[in-house]
Automatic annotation (TrEMBL):
It comes from the Bacteria. Transmembrane segments: none annotated. Residues 330-430 form the Pyridine nucleotide-disulphide oxidoreductase dimerisation domain. GO terms for molecular function: oxidoreductase activity. Its cofactor is FAD. Belongs to the class-III pyridine nucleotide-disulfide oxidoreductase family. This is FAD-dependent oxidoreductase.
Length: 452
């Protein structure tokens, strides 16, 4: 059997590893248009802020290791056309410009996503830069050495993390967000305001509710024109949206409205000989029980592994996702899982929130830190739908715990008394996850007057 994997970032790498394990006799061929594989995009802000000194250290896989295991690695090679009916590919070596054909028995599409560049006058200016790839990260870092006033377009995770990176390297930062709040996909307004206040306390100028309409070069830098006002910067880093890169299979497999490849739980497309994984696909989003497009590296790795496991026979189904995310922002952990209150109500739930704020462990300990949690739940079924956490204490694993509770359809009543360890080193007699759920139970049972 011959397996071809198109694309070799997170999903592709995970697929290779499982193909080697479960189909050791197969011939495995990989096509990747870039010279390197496995770049972690978080390396961009970590490098800018000085946490990571060498950007090359952010790669976690070496193509030579796969070659030594018998994988035919074709880097800097672009797949021009796929004929699903004939099981053939037309490819081009980007160095020699030579074309060739190849064939497959099974194909795994791991082509990822493409940058969705916003339509803004002047965006083609070389002082307006993107921040998705490793090459773009190098360009951003080089430009930052001679530019002090940095504009960042986009207030999602990437934009917020970039703002920290530039502040840590001594830059003057203005963060532009079209929505009225930062991180609007992941957080409700109360928690998003906490993030905004943290950024502002560290010197970031946050501009929300403002569309950027044009960039104009001046003698001293760039003028950024928004629907609110104009701002002077030296350069702009654009954190754009992304789109699934599925053009090679258009008209050959089922695609969603935005072009993402639709798969079953075994990562198979509508063509039984083609599997797909990563940013090119949709995911099963458990809080809504529907499939949707949520491009995350964590999804890509799991989906790629499943595609590699299932390429020859059905072995394991995907169990879906809660889209759990997190970041460390100026030494504060910000973590989210599941639905926000706004998203829950849009999905048709009779949703409500409970807020908890208290120290993560007893006051008699030498140190402690406050934890803030917003828990989202459905009043009808009392199911947990989502949570947002923020603390100087490490609460990322608590978000993972809530993710499992959502996965298993647990209720606020169960979360209120779920078995969690107690030690003054780690928490109060009731863990803070128990406590926020107990607040939710009290709200629903009439013992609290707090309203969402």
């Amino acid at each position: 059997m011959k397996i071809i994997i198109v694309g070799c970032t997170h999903a592709g790498i995970a697929a290779i590893k499982q193909c080697l394990k479960y189909t050791p006799d197969a011939e495995i061929t990989v096509y990747e248009r870039h010279a390197d594989i496995s770049y972690l995009s978080c390396g961009t802000y970590l490098h800018l802020g000085g946490t990571v000194k060498n950007l090359d250290a952010v790669f976690y896989a070496d193509p030579a290791d796969f070659t030594q295991q018998g994988v035919h690695m074709h880097l800097q090679t672009d797949v021009i056309k796929i004929d699903a009916q004939q099981h053939t590919l037309l490819v081009q070596d980007l160095q020699t410009k030579q074309f060739s054909h190849d064939h497959y028995d099974k194909l795994i599409m791991a082509t990822g996503s493409a940058t969705k560049i916003p339509v803004i006058t002047g965006i083609e200016n070389p002082k307006v830069m993107l921040c998705k790839t490793c090459d773009q990260a190098h360009h951003l870092y080089a430009a930052a050495q001679t530019h002090h006033r940095i504009g960042i377009l986009g207030g999602g995770y990437t934009g917020v993390e970039l703002a920290e990176g530039y502040v840590r390297s001594g830059h003057d930062v203005t963060l532009f967000q079209r929505n009225d709040q930062l991180l609007n996909t992941y957080m409700d307004p109360v928690m998003a305001q906490k993030v905004q206040r943290l950024l502002q306390a560290k010197g970031v100028h946050v501009v929300t509710g403002a569309d950027v309409t044009r960039f104009d070069e001046t003698a001293t830098g760039l003028t950024v024109t928004t629907t609110q006002a104009t701002y002077e910067v030296d350069m702009v880093a654009v954190c754009p949206g992304i789109l699934p890169q599925s053009d090679l299979l258009k008209g050959q497999v089922r695609l969603s409205k935005n072009g993402a490849i639709i798969t079953n739980a075994y990562m198979e497309t509508s063509d039984p000989d083609i599997l797909a994984a990563g940013d090119v696909t949709e995911v099963r989003y458990n809080p809504t029980l529907h499939t949707t497009y949520i491009p995350l590296a964590s999804h890509a790795i799991r989906q790629g592994a499943l595609a590699g496991m299932n390429v020859a026979q059905h072995r394991l189904k995907s169990i879906g996702t809660q889209a759990t995310t997190g970041m460390l922002l100026f030494n504060q952990t910000v973590a989210c899982t599941g639905l926000t209150l706004a998203a829950a109500r849009t999905a048709g739930y009779d949703a409500r929130t409970a807020f908890y704020q208290g120290n993560y462990r007893p006051d008699f300990m030498p140190t402690t830190a406050p934890v803030t949690i917003e828990l989202v739940y459905d009043r009808t079924s009392r199911r947990i739908l989502g949570a947002q956490l923020m603390s100087a204490h490490e609460v990322a694993q608590s978000a993972n715990t809530v993710s499992v509770l959502i996965q298993n359809n647990n209720t606020i009543d169960q979360m209120a008394f779920v078995d969690m360890l107690f030690s003054p080193n780690f928490d109060e007699p009731f863990n803070y996850l128990n406590l926020v759920a107990q607040l939710a139970v009290d709200q629903e049972d009439g013992f609290a007057s707090q309203q969402a």
